[in-house]
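Please discuss these two lines.
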Amino acid sequence: EKHISIQRHLADLEKLADLKEGEFTMAVSQNTDLHVTDEKKPCPLCPEEKFKACYSHKLHRHLQNLHWKVSVEFEGYRMCICHLPCRPVKPNLVGDQTFSKMGAHYHCIICSATITRRTDMIGHINRHVNKGETESRFITVPAPKSSHEVLKESATDVQVLPNYSTPQKTDSYFNPKMKLNRQLIFCALAVLAEERKPIECLDAFGATGIMGLQWAKHLRSSVKVTINDCNENSVTMIQENCLLNKMKVKLNTKEEDNDEAMGDGEENTDTIEVTKMDANVIMHLRSFDFIHLDPFGTSVNYLDSAFRNVRNLGIVSLTSTDISSLYAKAQHVALRHYGCNIVRTEYYKELAARIVIAAVTRAAARCNKGIEVLLAVALEHFVLVVVRVLRGPSPADDSAKKIRYLIHCQWCEERIFQKEGNMVEENPYQQLPCDCHGSMPGKTAVVLGPLWSGALFNTGFLRRMLFEALQYGLDEAQPLLKTLVYEAECTTLKHFSTHSPYDENKQEECGVYIKTPNTSAESYLVHGKRKSDEVIRNAAKRQKSENSAEHPAFYYNIHRHSIKGMNMPKLNKFLKYLSKAGYRVSRTHFDPMGVRTNAPLAQFKTILMKYSTPTYTGGQAEGPVHLAEDVQAGEQVQAAADGKAEDAEFLEDDKSGVAAATFTKDYPTHCVAD
């Protein structure tokens, strides 16, 4: 039997005290003296020494306020607080006297455990729910089993467990915050599907199977999807989700051929193969054109297997969620997993992306393969890297040469990659553009790395990803992809020319996709009909021609380098000032206030200082503000005399808002990615 403190309604609790339902309300409505019509009754959940017997009106308030209101609810039942001596309590010894403390507690409806605090009781019940223990042993009528919650994302339905967002407590982990990550990977796969059909793609860590289901549902005959997971419960969940989305399943649970067809009719293009084996095993046994790795934590343990059998000019994408080590919060873990020495810098997100790419490059080189980085994204929850595989020792050597060490000045945040070569340099500080080592005592710089020193983006591939995002209506990925295109070209928004990537012959991606603008027919060049060395030569020529236009490495945070006592210009205006000075400049998705430019840090600070306005305290605002206005008016006249009409317009805007800027510091509100 269940404990008396577990009841459905307050009336059930009052019946235990022989308190008739409505007795207190009836006495009040008839203006009857409760002491005459009632007799004293004890509380059923309190001992006599804690709460003495009282009349019904007082007992009603006691049960309602001290027991019912602080109860814990679970599936229609209330676990009220109990003061009976059910829980053994150690006595308190004070001198020669012994005080027996009456411990208030709750009785668990599931396991009959006694919990002291209400918050602990709620957590105790939640742990039962996470383990799937939702049926009470005390309930005579079994409660209806909680059905799996169905979530919908990108026209794909998936069943998830009640604890789907906690990876440590579930077999089928599903994170709604990774929707942007899934959309980016889908766009990359859609671009590859336009190059050659059909392609075999693998989701090595399926969990609920949401990613593979989206691939098969939208790309259909262009892809042959394989969803893998080593957990039996996850495999069962993937099969149910396939049937929920009206997809046929081909089950393969062992390394040998053991196929079991599920669904009606014969196997067709909408069939998804579900495998139950270790990710390293399936990537060693089979070849794929597209592989995505998304383990819980780091993915370095699966890189060797991923590059072992991936096909030439295929794509490997990996999502790393071990951001504590990549973002320099656990530097010893980064050294252990990636063999990389890092510190916390203003550009730590881009540093994390280059760490992952360096690990990918080394794994590919061990398999005599090179890489071309197509996309590198580092946001709050993950680091996503998408690379194209170039088979052969020559591309492997070229990629390995791009792994270098970075010299970072800890005083001014200036940074530069070490020069190529094996000779030991006498004074490495000479490579830094700054002179902090000469003006500051001690050692001022650290060596970070090894890191990837090449480009992080491929402009042509990003344009085609943006086209696919527009075609499939992926709203969350479109703003980020636009920002990535601007960042890859290192240009501002107004200087960017938007046009369809299929309006002209696309020969950027190794000459694999061609479409004539005046015809609707599309011509696909199949890689199998070409010699692999010719394709690699074309890729090498294209990479060599793009080196001159490669985006600058790293970025500067405008707030990090702001001058004390000065109001910075608006970020978009500052980008124009840098561009007019002759430098390449763009915003970056790594940091909303970051500026990617090839300008040295000294010139960056000079331009920032030039266009900053003084900030004064409230008592001094009246006098110096007029002085600042006079100075700006003089600069406006000089700018107009020099023919700099655009600068004069900016100064006019600053003049109108200088009074407000003296009291509050205006920050740009436009956020491009995060």
Observations:
- The mean pLDDT is 79.
- The two ends are 54 Å apart (CA to CA).
- The first helix runs from residue 10 to 16.
